[in-house]
Amino acid sequence: MRFRSVLVAGHQGLVGSAVVRNLRRNGDVELITRSRKELDLRNRDAVDRLLRDTKPEAVIIAAAKVGGIQANSRYPVEFLLENLEIQNNLIAASFVAGVQKLLFLGSSCIYPKSAPQPIAEDAILTGPLEPTNEPYALAKIAGIKLCQAYARQYGANFISAMPTNLYGPNDNFDLESSHVLAALLRKAHDAKLAGRRSLMVWGTGTPRREFLHSDDLADGLRFLMENYDAPDVVNVGWGQDVTVRELAEIVCDVVGFSGDLEFDHSKPDGVPRKLLDVSKLGKLGWKPRISLREGIRSTYDWFLKEGDR
Ligand code: GFB
């Protein structure tokens, strides 16, 4: 790592824990982390103090209020307000503390609902957003724009990466608030143990989603920290997508659940397709390695050991 000390905000989550694993594996760097109990990132004074006291050379913002399609629809206030608070505090305090480089994480849902597929970086702000996650997307767009504003006004090296749908160890497996892959893993596991004949999939099963393992994302983020110094956003994805039905079939196969799939049409489908154009990052010289089946297998192994903690 080209930096001696890195503050990883949100180090216990899906992305942050992968970033910490990756940085530990790849060289000698002082990692600065604070648990949610130790520090409330929504508190500006506390965040100012953290940056002032620890003086990291670099900051990676993996902290955010996140959730699946249902959590986003049910809690628009928290998804908008808490994300704005967390990112504003960290970005502004990092600038005051003289942080050399900051990486902010957006999301593929910042792109318009009807963006041409695969979605290139320049599709941002070209059309209306998907209503189920508009508050979250607006907060993330504000974060990207704040990083770009610091770059333009003060020359700060604050960059933004746009990951696709993610999965891996430390994902949220709560059926009410999780994303689809973790939810299906848990449902297939529970159905297998209970000897059930079928598993309920939300929506029609026809929406397409692209999935990237969090360890691949973390590797891509380290690559960007070391090699990319421009304010324009960069997509980080796998490059191919599957339907929700196909995903459910792979998950059931990996878990060993052989019952039927049923579809609950009362649940929302969300955006019909969300596949990122990853050619920019590919040209810069990075690509992901963990195939969907292999990643689901290792995530299920993790879930069996740690998932019920
Ligand atoms: O992963 P997910 O919750 O979020 O849902 P999004 C993806 C698709 O999977 C939707 C279907 O069509 C869901 O209806 N699905 C099927 C399920 N079964 C299930 C289930 O048991 N649980 C869940 N959660 N979904 C999110 C945004 O959108 O994408 C976030 O809401 C974020 O803000 C994230 O951007 C990356 O992919 O639709």
Using brief descriptors, characterize the structure shown:
10 helices, six-stranded parallel sheet, alpha/beta, 309 residues, 16% strand, binds guanosine-5'-diphosphate-beta-L-fucopyranose, single chain, three-stranded mixed sheet, Rossmann fold
If you had to describe this structure to a student in words, what would you say it looks like?
There is one protein chain. This protein is of the alpha/beta class. The protein contains 10 helices and 13 strands. It has a 6-stranded parallel beta sheet with strand order 2-1-3-4-5-10, with helices on both faces. Helix 1 links the parallel strand 1 and strand 2. The two termini are 32 Å apart. The structure holds guanosine-5'-diphosphate-beta-L-fucopyranose.
Briefly summarize what is shown.
By secondary structure, the protein is an alpha/beta fold. The chain is 43% helix and 16% strand. The chain has one domain (5-171, 210-240, 274-292): NAD(P)-binding Rossmann-like Domain (Rossmann fold, 3-Layer(aba) Sandwich).
